[in-house]
Amino acid sequence: DVIVGLMMPPAKYLCKQLHKAMDGVGTNEKTLIEILCSLTNEQMHDVVANYEEMYDRPLAEHLCSETSGSFRRLLTMICIGGRDPQGTVDPDLAVEQANQLYNAGEGKLGSDEEVFYKILAHASFDQLEIVFEEYKSLTGRTIEQALKSELSGELYDALSSIVECVQMTPHFFAKRLHKAMDGVGTDDASLIRIIVCRSEIDLQNIKDEFEQMYNKSLYSVVKGETSGDYKRALLALIGDA
């Protein structure tokens, strides 16, 4: 799987992983969240185009058949490529969006989920960074605290993943890698997917973050959790990053 992943263009490899997460009985929502919530708009366009070419079916349509409710609407919004391009920022709009988030959640009884997923699925990551700062200035609470108190289930998992990726993508993936190897057994699929997918993007930053968070190197932990050719391939990727 490591070698197959390295031989495929990144967008095609992600498509394969998304299809695998939805194919057959049951859906692996964690994989859908990890991939879709961490992509920029440009990366998303590549994935959407490749998915239809590879599977003769639009990604949005497949997602709709495998998910439901607000979680389905959020993922559909993300995959139709509605997020503003990186670098798109409007400080005045950020103040307005922070107010909208407050009024849809902590500022009322109950919560209006649609406001949360529309803003977090549409605004650029750069814009969201300003929105989250404005939210804290407005309320004295972080956006993470707001999400935790107002939402639950897969929608909460997806939106909190977007927040983590906005604030520090390497931290998000370092946590995922640690979870894949923590406890009894190893989540090989997640380990391979993250290391292969991020090898040409920010694996060095993920390595640095991992060591800072867990006081041990990613290389040493992977070395202790894997074996054979699979181990050698992953360690070569980590060592080269």
From TrEMBL:
The keyword Repeat applies. Gene3D superfamilies: Annexin. GO terms for cellular component: cytoplasm; nucleus; plasma membrane; vesicle membrane. SMART domains: ANX. Keywords: Annexin, Calcium, Calcium/phospholipid-binding, Repeat. GO terms for molecular function: calcium ion binding; calcium-dependent phospholipid binding; phosphatidylserine binding. The keyword Metal-binding does not apply. InterPro entries: Annexin, Annexin_repeat, Annexin_repeat_CS, Annexin_sf. SUPFAM superfamilies: Annexin (SSF47874). Signal peptide: none annotated. Belongs to the annexin family. A pair of annexin repeats may form one binding site for calcium and phospholipid. This is Annexin. The lineage of its organism: Eukaryota, Metazoa, Ecdysozoa, Arthropoda, Hexapoda.
